[in-house]
Amino acid sequence: MSRAFVFxxxxxxxxxxxxxxxxxxxxxxxxxEEVDEALGEALxxxxxxxxxxxxxxxxxxxxxxxxxxxxxxxxxxAEGLDWAEVSCVxxxxxxxxxxxxxxxxxxxxxxxxxxxARGRAMQEAVPVGVGAxxxxxxxxxxxxxxxxxxxxxxxxxxxxxxxxxxxxxxSGHKAAVERAVDLAKARGAKRAVLLPVSAPFHxxxxxxxxxxxxxxxxxVEIATPRVPVIANVLAAPVTxxxxxxxxxxxxxxxxxxxxxSVGWMAQNGVTEIWxxxxxxxxxxxxxxxxxxxxxxxxxxxxxVRKVCTTSxxxx
Length: 315
Known about the structure:
The protein is α/β, with parallel strands linked by helices. Helix content is about 50%, strand content about 20%.
């Protein structure tokens, strides 16, 4: 059995996530302490006892989700996780940073600082109210691309997230995205709705954020990951540090090719995918992409113990 680890993106955050991991595993608590130190503030206090609206802020949600994912991974390692059984890693949007940290390409501290900078840069790239994102359900990727092109009318409207065969997210100027919603409904979409997001991520409007991140990425050391990372913008594996740096820059404005990424894994022998961190959104997508892939969501100490016990019994 070939296993892949995947790491969630923004939207999975909840108050209290990761607390029981930190209580049960010293190595998991150490991740939160390292993130707090890197950011110079008690982000862990916000994650565990703060207000949901503050945690949802992009600059907080991104490093918080990474910290929770890495805490879950450290708990798995404390229970005897064998990396020899892991063939590759991937993450959805910010989750790609978590994947890189998990694979040892980035330090936890550098990852936290990069995600804080990324969150702020993405929020500041477009004034509030100028941009929007919408989920279009029941249309394939090619149809959504055609809808986005028709809706643009001189503005930006692009396919931002190709999540699974029936879920594509568009991003761009608010008026153009609203036109895309109407056009999608006319094309037979099962559902087409604006998303409650603070900025139009993964489209050309994020160019200012990409330039900011170019400088931030240039300042950190990137090592060769222990396993290949399936990059969002390529839907293919990468291991070369300088290519990883370039792809993280391109990811800010590029589409998250999740459907194709999972397809690559399936075609290259992955038979089991574990979602590491908060929520279960990614394994839901995986099931809609390829039901032959076994899935596990691992975000609590109970999940860790259960999956490690099961692995020992089947070894």
